[in-house]
Amino acid sequence: MTEVVKNKYETVIVLSAKLGEEGNAELVEKFKALIAKHGTVESVDEWGKRRLAYPINKETEGYYTLVNFESTPDFTAELDRRYKITRPQFHHREERSPFCNRCCKAA
What we know:
By secondary structure, the chain is of the alpha+beta class. The chain contains three helices and four strands. β2 and β3 (59-71) form a beta hairpin. The longest helix has 19 residues, at 20-38. The two termini are 27 Å apart.
C-alpha cells in the first residue's frame, strides 16, 4: 500500500480592491473550498487592503490574503491553473512552506 505524500504550502492571493469586502470574501471562500476539497486548510490570514508595490491595470491597491494549507504536490498545478483563469485577480503565489514535515523529521 502506497502512502500519499502531502506537503505544507502557503499561497498569497492578491485581488482587486474594486470588488469590495464582499466580492473579495466570496472569491477567497471559493479558493478555500477548492483547497479543502483537495487537501487541508490550516490557516487563513486576511491582510486586507494594501497598497501595491507598483500599479497593475491602473490600480494602486489590492486585497491580500495568505492561506496555509497541506496537499499533494500535484494539486498545486491545478490551483495555479484556477488562479490564472479567475479575474479580477492581480497576483498569486504558492510555495512550499519552510516548515514542512520532512525537514522537521530530519532535525
